[in-house]
Design a protein that fits this description.
Elements lengths: L1 E6 L4 H12 L3 E6 L7 H5 L16 H4 L10 H10 L8 E4 L2 E4 L3 H8 L22
Parallel strand pairs: 1-2
Antiparallel strand pairs: 1-3, 3-4
Length: 135
């Protein structure tokens, strides 16, 4: 099974998440989330019924600085901001045979792919403590 994995290249968590999928025997095609030619409808398709605030990368500079308040945005405002600044997009974005999702929540991934990731703790927060940002 092939997984399209939209990531920020160099992201430590995305690297770990891809390794889990590869270890489970899946084919992972990594794509640069920041370089993708997004359209609002295509990007929107990854968020499903999630509240708008859950679409956002909580570590994005504009969010941490308080310039963007995900909880105060509607769908159209959120998509416009994300198209202008892809760092705002929560990652990874996953596409498996047309099933799309945002974030790496092990339960969702396990259910979809029928694999056991119980041992994996797929954390979306930035693990770096050396002063560098994971944005």
């Amino acid at each position: 099974m092939r997984v399209l994995f939209y990531e920020k290249p160099g992201c430590v968590n995305n690297t770990r998440q891809k390794a889990l999928l590869l270890a489970a025997g899946l084919e992972v095609e990594a794509r640069n989330l920041l370089a993708e030619a997004w359209t609002a409808p295509f990007l929107r398709s990854f968020f499903g019924m999630r509240p708008v605030a859950e679409w956002f990368n909580r570590s994005a500079p504009a969010v941490t600085a308080g310039d963007v308040d995900p909880a105060g945005l509607n769908e159209h405002q959120a998509l416009a901001l994300m198209l202008a600044d892809p760092l705002l997009i929560r990652r990874p974005l996953l596409d498996v045979d047309g099933w799309r999702s945002v974030g790496f929540e092990a339960a969702d991934v396990m259910a979809l792919l029928g694999i056991d990731l119980n041992a994996a703790q797929a954390d979306e927060s930035c693990p770096r403590r050396d002063g560098h940002r994971c944005d």
